[in-house]
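During the reporting period the student researcher (J.K.) took over the structure-prediction task from the postdoctoral fellow and processed the backlog of single-chain submissions. One of the processed entries is reproduced below for the supervisory committee.
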Amino acid sequence: MMHEITKGLEGVEVDSTAVSLVDGQAGKLSYRGHFIESLIDWPFTRVVLLVLDGIVPTPAEQAEFEVQLARAAVLSEPDEALLQLAAQTPVHPMTVLQGLIPLLSHSAGFERFGDAAHGLTIAAKLPALIAGLHRLRGGETTTAPSPSPDPNVRFLAQMGLPARPALARAFNITQILQIEHGFNASTFTARVVASTLAPIENVLAAALGALHGPLHGGADQAALEMAVEVGTPDAAEAYVDACLANGRKIMGMGHREYRLLDPRARFVKQLAGELARGTPLEPIQQTLEAIEAHFLARMLERGKSLYANLEFYKGIVYRAAGLPPNYFTAAFAMARVYGYLAHFIESRTDNRIIRPAARYVGITPA
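J.K. obtained the following structure tokens:
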């Protein structure tokens, strides 16, 4: 008897995890037993350690981790030379990161994380790489990290942005909401590569390759570009109807896991609205809201409930932070990399190479 093939592995449990729970039926997300609603105002590094270790860190443990991250965040001379070369190419920032990650220099620190230690060094360097690439391509020089213990604050400083409390808080919350999300496509990619016992730099490079896709992490860039293309809230209804009539996907609407509203989207929509108010981003925010409203109405007419996901409004937060759209997914990677590392560590405790079967439907040999 032949088993039914489940394209995309939807609903198929391929392994167990204690890192996060994505409860799609209830519209809930938790990291290590803590609902995200209770985590959004924590320091970013405190949430990272919770995800990595499974327990809430002490203040001393958090402070030590922040010192290690700050030390590892400084790009070495070879790292700077690689970045200078990469900045001269026209390729997408995600492709640059995927190419640079296996080449970054090692540094001491994070020894207690074992095989994942170099991965944490890579994670620490990502903000400097992204900000540095952006500045170099804009004809500026890279900047030294700020003295802040918060990697998100350091990133905003390296981007050359003023320390606005509202922006810093919105960016921090957005990054916390993106640290971890179950066996999504890029995390599963990380676990597949990790299962071969490949080194951590290869695991992270592969995961970023999956994250780049517009059906995954790249949806943030696609959603904002869609709103700009639509132009005004008045044009949203016709746009939605045309997409539905032609079978064109509306980027950032709906989610494989959630049958109710993506809990992360609720926070990001509010933050985006606050940052956009009274700025040139406000018409784009209003256009996104109009697209969402018309899409929800059309889905209800069809007896369906599909809502905006995290990616739909996130571009407003990132634009307020000074990021061009093609850097959005790279900023996403700055947070999700810690989720990849948590899964890498977890997979090493009971490793078995991931090697599914495929049903052959080709010509039968004679």
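The committee noted the following: The first helix runs from residue 44 to 53.
J.K. will present the remaining backlog at the next meeting.
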